[in-house]
Amino acid sequence: MLRFCSHSVRMTRLLLGLLLVSATCVGCGTTREREATEQLVLSNAVDRSISSIDFRPLTGRKVYLDTSYLRQVKTLGFVNSEYVTSALRQQIAGAGCLLQDTSQDADIIIEARCGTLGSDDHRVTFGIPENNSLSSAASLIPNSPSLPSIPEIAVARRDAREAAAKIAAFAYDRETRKAVWQSGVRQSTATARDTYVLGVGPFQAGSIREGTKLAGSRFVRFGDKTANHSPSESFERPPVDYTAEIRFQDGWPIYDKQSVAAHFVEDTGGGSNDAPTVEPEEPVDGATSIATSPTSEEDDHPIR
């Protein structure tokens, strides 16, 4: 009888202990994303740097992109000098420059370089980190039993990955070798942050995320130049968003519906080529109609 009562007491205590542990442990999860996250932050840093370079001063000129100083580094990732080169070519073409396959066919040589392309990892733990201090202290006492290491007891933890890219370009005349234009150093960073609170997570945020996510699912949305740089210059050609889908007509970006319709008619042959071009009454979003390219040669080439 006494044995039965003591056994029941032990079982009751065990059940109470399990209920207490279940109440304090809110949740847990495991996420493996290192390779994909690294590629995202690296490519995002490159895109940010190159999208800030404005090649419009070279609009209409025959240019050759010299990539001899963009060294290829043997890595397992996709983001390397080839990605940087392709991104630069896209931005140059979007600015209305005429890319040439060889330097002999070009009037202007654009030389590009990449000074930084890499990522760092950071981890911050709010709580008690994993340590083996008790085991080390017990080993100093003779005939003492070995003690296990203390596991990590974290109230919250943040894992952060930050990538950086530094890209620059300059242009010079192929024949005279005189300087024509330079972009300045374009440096940018991209981040990815994973936060765990009481075992729940990861809450994913950072510049590569479209809002805050919980384990990949949408959770909630949160809302220097030196003094001697050249003054800003206005161009007839509008800028092209590096990250947006853009249609072109005769090398010029199309931003209004009137130009899109005219472009469709011209491609499909559904209208007369002699029909006059009708300008829209009001520009869309403050953009100027650019259905036709400029006729002035001086406006087409701001820099000689």
Provide an overview of this structure:
The protein is of the alpha+beta class and 304 residues long. The protein has a domain at 244-304. The chain has six helices and eleven strands. The strands form two sheets. Strands 1, 2, 3, 4, 5, 6, 7, 8 and 9 form a nine-stranded mixed β-sheet that branches. A two-stranded antiparallel sheet has the order 10-11. It is elongated. Residues 1-5, 18-31 and 271-304 have low confidence and may be disordered.
Form type? elongated
Task: Decide which structural class fits the backbone.
Answer: alpha+beta
Number of distinct helices: 6
Ends distance: 105 Å
Radius of gyration from the CA trace? 30 Å
Region (Disordered): 265-304
Keywords: Signal
InterPro entries: DUF6655
Pfam family, one: DUF6655
In short:
The chain has 304 residues and is α+β, with helices and mostly antiparallel strands. 25% of the residues lie in helices and 28% in strands.
Task: Provide the fold topology.
Elements (H helix, E strand, L loop, with lengths): L1 H23 L9 H18 L10 E5 L14 H14 L3 E2 L8 E21 L4 H6 L14 E21 L5 E4 L3 E12 L2 E6 L6 E3 L2 E4 L26 E3 L2 E3 L2 H12 L28 H4 L4
Helix pairs in contact: 2-3
